[in-house]
Amino acid sequence: MNVICRRILPNRRCFTQCRRYVRCPIIGVLGHVDHGKTTLIDSLRSTNNASQEAGGITQQNSIFQHTMQEDNFKFTIVDTPGHAAFSKMRATGTVLTDVAILVVDAAEGVKPQTKECIQMLKDNDVPIVVALNKIDLPKSNVDLCHEMLFEEGIETEQVGGNVPSVPISALQGTNVPQLMQTVRKVTDALDLDVVSQGVAEAVIFDIKPDKRKQIVSTLLIRKGSISKGDTIVTDTHASSVRELLSIDGGRLSIGMPGMPIRVVGPQQFSGNLVMGNTIYSIPKAKRISKKKETVASVNKLQSRILDIVREEKIYKRLPHGKKKVSFMLCADSKSTLEILQQMLDIETDEVIVSVFSSSVKFLTPEQIKTAEAIDAQIILFNVQPLECETTAVVHHYDIIYHLAKAVNTSINDALPPNIERIVTGKGVIAEIHGTKKKRVAGVNKLTGKFSLGLNFMITRSGFEVWNGAIDSLRYVKSPILETSSNMTECGVSFAKHSVSNLVVGDVIECYGNESKERILLSGKFYGQNQEDIIDLSASS
Prior knowledge:
This protein is an alpha+beta fold. Helices cover 21% and strands 32% of the residues.
């Protein structure tokens, strides 16, 4: 369950001056059911949870910290369920992790949940270290496992790829330290520098009541910090953090990025902690009244927090010179969504187009709020209009090329103008005269048209030597606004201070600037030719 804990920032300067902090890496342990994930976890924790699990399989996400004996380097380890019924929980663990340990039974090879994990990891660009487990079994076949992984697009170093793999026996502890050393090498190449103050972002792993009729939530902090006394806000409720505990149960004064922590709050708050809810955390000094909060006060508080989310978006670093345009999709079927995602698969030197999320049939109010917070545009294709008002830009169409044109225009609007130089006339400077105030050039071999209101450029041997506006344009001795098609020569005068190095033989061009729309989407989405038009009704 994604939970974002945000702290109010007084202004933009506060955000940019927040302290940076190198958090510990978050390592996910994934794989097919009964391939030895929990046994590997037990080896790292020196516990025996595998024998205690119902049916011998992990039923929920678990999280802890592992310290390497050599230098006290810490990892945060996330254990995810392998059974098919727990795919949503497994996906949560995948999104969180910096590096994934993909556990594969060396005797069984790649299985259905192994394939699902591989796809999730690829979708989220998570680096992988393969742990070929149970090499102590007589039926283990490491070479066959490498071949099966290769068929799924995981090219291990043993077959000439760049994915590290380590043969281990989690039960006997064989090569487990070498596995963690390999993981350490992969994490050393990652940028784990995060903001440790201000905006806090965490993910909830577990919610349980305790003996004191309070709720204990297990969180993993991604960035920012959470302290005792902070106020947590959901859609309809606000409550304070009564107590902050380490994952082992010890008291904490503050939770830092990369740390798994436990947060204690009132029992009535548990009903608001559900899958997908966004939660905000406000520092103690900004906490709202201890009296029972009204929905109006919570909404006002959320409005302030959403402004901070926008601040975070403004300061998010992108490659130099690039703009990011985000979309939220809603269509009548999954196959239609796939086509829309294909349409928006755009990255150029100027723009990155991102699909933030997608849904079939309808968007929830929470999704719409999120779109507003991150300035994402909403695309509705062949579905009903939104039932609530929104400040987000909404594109609502049922014909793909109409939508494509609107989206292309919208992306163009987010970019600087695409200016194209249009040359209208060209000639050669044949003679040069000067006065105290002006410099006059006689131009012959004139082609096209010179216009007084346009720009002029002078080149020599192909290199630009001057660019700007001229003072006047003459034919014979009469002033004119522009040359006509039957004129092959004219006089051009410049202010003396603007140009001083004219040379006979220089080429002079007259040009205008025209703003051109970028065609960023594939032509087939425009229906430019009848055979190019995509019929989405067939895929609905």
